User: What shape does this take?
Amino acid sequence: MKRFFLLLISCLLCSGGFSQNNILRGIVKLQSSGSKPLAGVKLSAFGSSPVYSNSSGQFEITFSNKKPGSTISLIIEKEDYEVINDKELDNCVLRERADDLVIVVMARQGERSKQALAYYNIIIENANTTFNKELKDINTRLDALDEDDQDRQVLRQQIEDLQKEKESLMNRAEDLAKQLAIVDLDQASSLAKTAYEKFQSGDIKAALAVLDDDALDKSLAEAKNEKANLEERLLKVDSALQQSIENYMIKARFCITDRQYKAAYKNYLKAVEADSTHVSNLWELASFCDELNQQQRAIRFFQQALNNTTSVANKASLLMNLGNQFTHNNSYEKAETAYLQSLEIYQRLAKENPQRYEPDVASTQMNLGVMYRNLNAYEKTEQAYLQSLEIYQRLAKENPQRYEPDVARTQMNLGVMYRNLNAYKKAEQAYLQSLETYQRLAKENPQRFDIDLCRTLLNIGYFKKALLEKRLDLRFQKEGQEIIQQVKVILGGYEDTLPIIKAFKSHYHTLDTYFNGITEEALIIQQAINKVVPYEEKNQTEKNPALVVTNQEMVISLLETTLKDYPNNQQLLTRTANAYGNMAWYYLFNRQFAEATQAAQRGLGLDETQEWINTNLALGLLYQGKMEDATALYSRLKDLPYNNATYKSTFLEDLVALEKEGITCAGVEEIRRLLGE
Assistant: This one.
């Protein structure tokens, strides 16, 4: 038996003038059945005795200590049935009038999923048809162009953009289908019913034609006019108003399936402007904006939904969504505030109903951990991840099918964090635990868990790469090759139609090339390079020329030590040559002109292809007063191409940079004239 707990907070929305009705009346009906009533549904709430709907679907609950405006927490139960309009019931309050009925819409268990699948297939089929037609048209135009025609690049870009748009729609198809499947057509307008008939036949264009702007605008205008002028028909008009608003929502969803995103936003906006307090509609619009990476709009509508919700649980969820949006915007202070507020609410709710809300506590901890990881606040990250893991592991003992994937995902995140901290033992333990779970789950259900398994394997692949470079143990090369082979097998069953598969294949090729091409010599060279990087990074921010020179001397010392053992390694020769070239530049600012000349000459001696070092060699000669040699070098190079211009531009820029630091000499003006300034 499935239970639906609709938990709401107490909130007084009525004034003293309202009648003291203490009866909640309503009807239980089947979704889109011609208003067929459903009998035998058990309804209960705190402060009242349980009741059952009668043969007409009617029910009546009496409260001894509540008054109009009090929110009601309903528990609705019937074997093999599920509630469809649970979001609407989430805002259920005791009415002023007992004849103001609550409508409970239910369906047989699985019917909603079945309908959503049918809608999903319609969306996918229509998307494939329209995208293929557009792609064919572009390819026809492309074939008609000459190979050197500049328009070819434009058309290729159109093909790439079209593919990205298709991938985006495919990713959203499941959610769109679910949203379309929850509409109760018994309560929908005639326009919506007709549009659904067209949509269910696979003709989305016809469905959109039914919901043309004039018809929707007319429907809303008529509803508003009737509401304003016919007070005695208020209930009916309110229903018409909601239907008219729902028309915009339905059209927006249809527009998304037809890739008309601007039109979708326009219709969503009309719906929320018509009722700016409708939490579900605001929520859906905010989520739509998030899908389009329009974070500022998403924040606006999530915040508006938050301001209007009377449900504590909704408030927690909306705060978590806001936290996600702020994280995307790198507004971490606001994100942390939203996450912590969400967490506090969920933790409080979980004390009263742990089965319902502990998963939300764990999910919020996970999002909080991701935010802290972005801030490199690893202590807080670890704390959040471990608290999330503890909850998921406990829940997985009772319901492994539901929560084992969450356990594995959390362990993988822990592995990534520990790897970033170079805590290799902890990282390996977390990775292997995640891998064991995903391998077992993917074996049972590859369609659902192959992606998660592949992601974990790629993370472990990068982990083995880090171990190989740190410990110079070729055993990790073999282990990395084995990991990548498993990735290859999984990806072999998928095409690059999904962005995530395309990204995974890119990571696979990177690791495959690395593990199959790495040698012991290359590892030692890479280790040497890794040692010098911190000193080079310091020099990017250090202002004291003497300290910069000291740091660069350490860079050269480390590279030269390795170069003695591998004097013919071209990667090392080039890296060391560039280090000397940079050292020459640093010596100039420390007024060590002879040393600058020597460093530049050493760099060119190691790798003569690094011609850029001549820019610093010329300066070293100039500032030593060796004008003949300097002039010869400037004359030879000044008109040669360099950095999308010529050496002359760089020569002049370097002179200006040194003069800003008060470094000049008698020959500078002669060189400027030589360069034609």
